[in-house]
């Protein structure tokens, strides 16, 4: 996660959906403020 947060790695939509699900938030909430 750290490299994603720092912009050193990109994440696919599928993986972003998995991260959002694990965090129990929507995709829009995950990307809010970007």
How would you sum up this structure, described in words?
- There is one protein chain.
- Helix content is 56%, strand content 0%.
- The protein starts with a helix and ends with a helix.
- It is mainly alpha-helical.
- The radius of gyration is 9 Å and the shape is globular.
- The protein has three helices and no strands.
- The chain has one domain (1-34).
- The longest helix has 11 residues, at 13-23.
- The chain has helices at residues 2-5, 13-23, 27-30.
User: Structurally, how many domains make up the residues?
Assistant: 1
Q: What share of residues are in beta strands?
A: under 5%
Question: Could you estimate the helical fraction of the residues in percent?
Answer: 55-70%
Mean pLDDT: 85
Topology as H/E string?
Answer: HHH
Number of strands: 0
Radius of gyration: 9 Å
- Uncertain ranges: none
Going by helix content, strand content and strand pairing, the class is mainly alpha
Shape: globular
Q: Summarize the biggest pleated sheet.
A: none
Q: Span between N and C termini? A: 16 Å
Number of helices: 3
What is this entry, summarized?
This protein has 34 residues and is mainly α.
How does the SSE layout of this entry go?
Blueprint: H1 2-5, H2 13-23, H3 27-30
List its salient traits.
34 residues, mainly alpha, globular
């Amino acid at each position: 996660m750290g490299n994603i947060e720092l912009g050193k790695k990109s994440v696919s939509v599928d993986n972003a959906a998995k991260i959002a699900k694990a965090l129990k938030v929507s995709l829009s909430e995950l990307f809010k403020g970007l």
